[in-house]
Structure formats: structure tokens, C-alpha cells
Amino acid sequence: MKIMAVNAGSSSIKFQLLDMPSEKQITTGIVERIGSDNASFTIKFDGQKYQKTTSILNHGVGVSIILEALIEHGVLSSINEIEGVGHRVVQGGEVFKSSVVINDQVLQQIIDLGDMAPLHNPANATGIKAFREILPNVIQVAVFDTTFHQTMKEDAFLYGTPYEWYTKYGIRKYGFHGTSHQFVSERANELLGSNDTKLIVCHIGNGASLSAVKNGQCVDTSMGFTPLEGFPMGTRSGSIDPAITSYMEKKLNVSSDRITDILNKESGYLGISGISNDSRDLENAILEGNERARLALDVQAKQIVDYIGSYYVYMGGLDAICFTAGIGENSAILRKMIADRLGVLGVELDERMNQLRGENLISTANSKVKVYVIPTDEEVMIAREVMSLQK
Ligand code: ADP
């Protein structure tokens, strides 16, 4: 059966069509610059790529163009072949503890949660509405970035802020990248041959977060109320002393929104190095002797290891560390910088295995903690969730 996994942004729709339960990818594609006369539409399948520029004034038109193209190129013989659509939704709050079949009430709840995720939930909802209108008889499922982390206990998800902030305004740690943390931790348990495990998943991409997963359940994660918390990322600062924000507001004579913008878009790798938010650029600069590029990776590696140490203690041990996402899967340098700092936990990296691509065990046979690279697949995870909710 064919399932579509959809990630809708404010001006884009990314999608993947998967054959289930084989989990084989049939097509991927993206509609960009929705709302303009020169929007672009790209699909890839069978190793070929088709691209066209056209007017796409809203998400509904975007969805129609996607479906027409799939038929035109013979990927589908009719839209009735699509038996389910899974939508990535960023914030599920405490309302959603698992993925859910979308109805009018669910859609409204997703929109209402937009208060906490104004850049994401409204856009996700727009995508859902467009697909529901065009495929009204097909099951549509919301898969949230936050639900995997809903198993955290209060001591892990509460901040040291007034308790009423939590009860009245929902101020707590939610965590993000949940589909990736779930996919990778499930795969690690398969590789370890047990569910009775203590894992740390390091999802390190442009956005980055860690999770501590005990017996298949998330017990802690580094992102918080928003994806800004944690360690430095491509352009995000990660956690800082909260008093810095009002101090710098005065020093720079800017608004608090502008400070949040700087912490989200001009910090992390980019802010520390002054060069780029892309780890490949930093690695090249390091080879040329650029000290601030090295510092950007050093600060990130140090803080990642801080989280690993704290999760080790919180879980009472550790069986495996799993690296995933753009940087986690591809940067042998950062993995080594992290593993070298973990000698005290008995982590021993196999330098040769660390250079390889794809899924691999990259620790030595003597290592007390196994270290894996496990490529993530959020779309497969979304399609699995759709399957599990289909009657
Ligand atoms: P996001 O989904 O958060 O945008 P990704 O998971 O795609 O991020 O990761 C993007 C990061 O992955 C970039 O910093 C990029 O440099 C890095 N990356 C991708 N491929 C490689 C590679 N071959 N070597 C090193 N880094 C890579």
C-alpha cells in the first residue's frame, strides 16, 4: 500500500511516497515558495529528477500539483492508490501523547497549540487542510515531534520556574525531533537484540538534540519548551544564562524578539566561528588552521558530552550511544571529538569504522559502551505510525 509522509512549512510542502509495509521509498518531492508566481516544484524517482517553476498561490494548489505530477509521471495510476497520509506536526503539547487520526477537533487542537509553536503548527495545519480537502476519504494522521518525549517524568520536564507557569501557561520541556529519536532508538534496540537497554540518541543536524531512552521510553531530552534549548547547533545558541537576554537587549538597544532571533539564527556554529552554519565549511576551515572554527566544534562537543554524562547518571548506566542526522551520520571528526571526551565512561572508538558511511558499529570490541551510527528516517517512522492507526 502507498502512504504519503508530509512535512508542510509556511511556504513549502516536502513529501515522500512510501510503499508499505516494505518501507521502500517511491518518490520524494518538494514544493517551494508557495504563494508566489515563481514557485518551484521538484520530484525525484527512479534516479530521475523533474523540476518546474510555476505559479502556486496556496498550499491547496501545491497539493493538486503534486498529485497531478505523480499521475502524469506514472508513479500513480490514480490518486485512489494513496491509502494514508501522515503529517509531521511540530508541537503536540501535553494534549497528544501519541500519533492520532485527524478529525476536525484534532485539527483545531493543532491550530490552538500554535501559540507555543507559531512558526510551525499553523503551517503544518495548512498542509493538513489542503490534503484533507483533496483526499477527503483517505485516513490522515498527525505525527508529532513531541510525543516520543511525553514519557519524561516531572523531574525531567519541569523547569525551576514558578509552578503556575507550568499549570497556567504550559511552560515545561517538550522536546523535539521525536520521530527521529524513536526511529533510531528502535533500530538500536533491534541491533542490541533487547528492549531492556539504556541508550543516548545524538540527533545532530542543523537543529540538534539528544535523548536518553531507557527500556524503549524517552526519559530526558535536550530541547525544551522550544527547539532553542540544548547545546549549540548550526545557528542556535542552545541553553544560555537566561539573564543574558535582558542584559544584551539593553546593550544592543534591541527588542527581546530581536535577541531571540539572534539566539535562533546568528549563534551556534555560525555565531562562534563567524564563518558558516555548515559543519563541512567548519571542518575545511579547521584544516586550514582556523581557530574559531575549531572552537565552534569544541564548544558543541563539550556541551554534548555534558548531556551524555548527566544522562548516564540519570539512567544509571549506558549501553549505547547512537549518532544520527546530517552531522551525526557524516562527521567523523565531531564523533571523534565526542568519543575522545568519553574515555572515562569506557568509550573506545574504532577509528577505522568511524570513517565508514551508513549504519555501523563504530566502537571497539573492548568499549564498555557501544557506539553506533544509525541513519535516521523520519518519513518511514511517519508511515509506520499511519499504518499502525489504520483499521
Ligand atoms: P536539518 O534537517 O536540521 O536541516 P540535517 O540533518 O540535514 O539538518 O543536517 C545538516 C548538516 O549536516 C549541515 O551542517 C551539513 O554540513 C551536515 N552534513 C551533511 N552532509 C555532510 C557530510 N557529508 N559531511 C559532514 N557534514 C555533513
TrEMBL record:
Matching CDD domains: ASKHA_NBD_AcK_PK
Molecular-function GO terms, alphabetical: acetate kinase activity; ATP binding; magnesium ion binding
Active site annotation, chain numbering: D145 (proton donor/acceptor)
Residues annotated for substrate binding in this entry: R88
Location (main, coarse): cytoplasm
A Pfam family the protein falls into: Acetate_kinase
Catalysed reaction, written as an equation: acetate + ATP = acetyl phosphate + ADP
Pathway connected to this protein: Metabolic intermediate biosynthesis; acetyl-CoA biosynthesis; acetyl-CoA from acetate: step 1/2
CC annotations in GO: cytoplasm
Highest taxon in the source lineage: Bacteria
Comment on bound cofactor: Mg(2+). Can also accept Mn(2+).
Subunit structure: Homodimer.
Protein's job: Catalyzes the formation of acetyl phosphate from acetate and ATP. Can also catalyze the reverse reaction.
Entry protein name: Acetate kinase
Lineage, opening ranks: Bacteria, Bacillati, Mycoplasmatota, Mollicutes, Acholeplasmatales
Gene: ackA
